[in-house]
Amino acid sequence: MPTQTTLWESLSRLYPHLKPILLRLILGLFAALGASLMALAIPQVFRVLVNDALAVGQATSTVWIASGVVLLLGILEATFVALRRFLVIAPATTVETTLRTSFYRHLQNLAVAFHDRWGSGQLLSRAMTDLNLMRRWMAFGAIMLVVDGLTITIGVSIMFFMSWPLALIFLAAAVPVMIYGFRFRTTYSRVSRKSQDQAGDLATTVEESVHGIRVLKAFGRSREALDSFNDQAEELRQTEIHKAHSLARFSLVVTLLPELALGASLVTGILLAVNGDVTIGGLVAFFATAGVVTARVEFIGPLLAMTFTAKTAIDRHYEVMDSENTITDPAEPRTLRQPHGVVTFEDVHFRYPDAEEPAADVLNGIDLTLQAGETMALVGVTGCGKSTLLNLVPRIYEVTGGAIRIDGVDLRDFTLEELRSHVSVAFEDTILFSNSVRDNVLMGAEPENDDDANAVLKEALDIAQAHFVYSLPEGVDTLIGEEGLSLSGGQRQRVALARAIAAKPRVLVLDDPLSALDVRTEELVEERLREVLQDTTTLIVAHRPSTVALADRVALMENGRIVDVGTHTELLARNTHYRYVIASLTEEPVDLDTELEELEHDDEEARA
Ligand SMILES: Nc1ncnc2c1ncn2[C@@H]1O[C@H](COP(=O)(O)OP(=O)(O)OP(=O)(O)O)[C@@H](O)[C@H]1O
Fold first, then answer.
1. CA torsion angle for 497, 503, 505, 511 (degrees, to 10)?
2. The sheet that has 343-350: what strands, in order across it?
3. Pairwise CA distance, residues 517 & 499, whole Å
4. How many CA atoms lie within 13 A of 492 on its CB side?
5. Is residue 429 in contact with ligand 1, taking CB distance under 6 Å?
6. Distance 224 CA to ligand 1 centre (A)
7. Hey, what domains does the chain have and what are their CATH numbers?
8. Which of 28, 225, 275, 401 lies most in the core, judged by the most C-beta atoms within 10 Å?
């Protein structure tokens, strides 16, 4: 539920960002005010013109001078308008870009738990549409609202000065306009918030459909997806219509009432002129001024709408910016000069932030030690918490109880930068970025120079058996990821594995990174991985017996706990649940007794 703030509270949050451009904004405001004053000055020339030059027998020179003055005032008005644009547009765009950059940086910093809760479309619409609305308000809405207010005040004062009875009649229209304006503010703010949220939800739907287009097509669900999209689009359309109706009603009131007042003051004005209480020139100037004021009053509707929309945009922007990053650097970080890579889990508990209260912890007291350079396979039935445990090591999620240490140092005592230089990850669902193969692989690497980078790249691609990249159109410089060449699941996994290896971490965390490879390629990768894993401590989630075979020891997980640790042979011999899990990893029936006999025989031979 968004927190309720007043219009002023919301708008004033922009002040720190406006501070650097405040001078230009103020100058822009003066330029806009200058344009308005020119517009208000023109009727006064009309007054002189009508009163002094229109009488029979007057010299025509007054007409020429007055026309020249009107022309000059017109040119000045246009110049002031152009000056306002020049002063304000560029700096407002700079503020928009700065806000967008800090928004993006904040999104990058926020914990994964935050991203689990927010639809991508909502974040996208905040990063693009809302910031755009805020810029338009800064560059135009805010200035014009102030200038319109001042113009109306000055215009009405001039009208009072020229004829107070006529001005009073005109002003009578302001009372209902203000009452209606109050109602308009409440309704429009509510609908505007609804429409911006719905637009964000719609963007999320588009993003998900594009992402999942293969699944939609494969299951023949395109029709349903379209129907659901149509429903959402229709809801947004209804809200937009409601918004437009609300603005149209307000605009009708602010247009009609001043016009009616103008009509009433026209009749009264003519009567006053007939009685000689006001000059003809004064009457002309009064109505020309009233024309300028009326136009400004009519413009108040769209300006207020723009302001309330900007308030909503600001509120939505700060809902994200105010979200605190829960995974941060410590005040006094510790460093490991020469990490060995001993990883210990001490009574680790974890619960997802969005989990219902009575639910048990996903990880419920994990105790496990990985010796330096050891490869430990993590095995367990689906949903027992393997991936969750892995995510805690690079602090993608934070433990909710207990501690994880590398060489005795709590992960939370490292800066995130240092931690992620010690720990590298590869997941089953590989994410590659719209970048070249080279940039994707070297993402976590810190090569000293170009030659070093090339060597690291070559070695990592070689270990991950990703030689196919050399046959891509531009080799390692080929653009891959969303905007580039599509790779197969197995190819993507190999590039992601190369990325994890290229970082040369002390601790490697692999979540079933070979699942999409064919058996032969998997064998080759494993052969090379064994070399790398010798001095890297590795925790690897295994969904295939061949991955288990990579490991020095296996940790068996059940219901968020480590229930047994030992070699594959030891666990096969003593743990029936382990046998059950291993048997369920393969589709074909396996004879585990024979496998155990063979393994024990191999072990005896090795010892002899
Ligand atoms: N982001 C999340 N928010 C809330 N609950 C989650 C989240 N991710 C996973 N869970 C829940 O946590 C539990 C453990 O999930 P996890 O992915 O760690 O299991 P796993 O053992 O790796 O499963 P698998 O072998 O199928 O990959 C599951 O019950 C899952 O529903």
1. -20
2. 363-370, 343-350, 401-406, 409-410
3. 16
4. 19
5. no
6. 28
7. 7-321 (1.20.1560.10), 343-566 (3.40.50.300), 570-608 (no CATH)
8. 28
Q: Over 185-212, what HEC string results?
A: HHHHHHHHHHHHHHHHHHHHHHHHHHHC
Give the pLDDT band of residue 247 (cuts 50, 70, 90).
Answer: confident
388 CA to middle of ligand 1, Å? Answer: 6
- Phi, psi at 326, each rounded to 5°: -90, -15
Structure tokens of 37?
């004053």
- If phi over 0 gives left and psi between -120 and 50 gives alpha, with beta otherwise, what is residue 347? left
Please give the helix or strand (H or E) that residue 168 lies within, else none. Answer: helix 164-172
Q: Is the dihedral angle over the CA atoms 305, 289, 157, 261 positive or is it negative?
A: negative
| SS3 of residue 406 by DSSP | strand
Instruction: With CA atoms as reference, report the closest residue to 163 among 271, 49, 33, 292.
Output: 271
CA distance 400 to 402: 7
Atom of ligand 1 nearest to the CA of 380: 21
CA of 211 to the centre of ligand 1 (A): 21
Structure tokens of 549?
């075979």
Gap between the Cα atoms of 406 and 264, Å rounded: 84
383 lines ligand 1 (CB under 6 A): yes
Q: Which amino acid is at 498?
A: A
Distance CA 269, CA 503 (A): 84
Cα separations in angstroms, 546 against 231, 317, 535, 594: 48, 49, 20, 17
The tens digit of pLDDT for each residue in 505-557 reads 889 898 887 777 777 777 788 778 777 777 889 899 888 777 787 788 999 99
Q: Ligand 1 pocket, 79 CB below 6 A?
A: no
**382 Cβ closer than 6 Å to some ligand 1 atom:** yes
Please state the pTM of the whole predicted model: 0.73
The whole-angstrom separation of Cα 484 and Cα 466 is: 17
- Identify the DSSP state of 3: P
The answer to whether the CB of 513 falls within 8 A of the CB of 497 is: yes
Instruction: Provide DSSP, 487-538.
Output: --HHHHHHHHHHHHHHT--SEEEEESTTTTS-HHHHHHHHHHHHHHHTTSEE
Cα end-to-end distance, the chain, whole Å: 69
Compute the average pLDDT of residues 24-30.
Answer: 92
Rounded to the nearest angstrom, the distance between the alpha carbon of 85 and the centre of ligand 1 is 54
pLDDT(145) > 80: yes
Is the CB of residue 468 below 6 angstroms from any atom belonging to ligand 1?
no
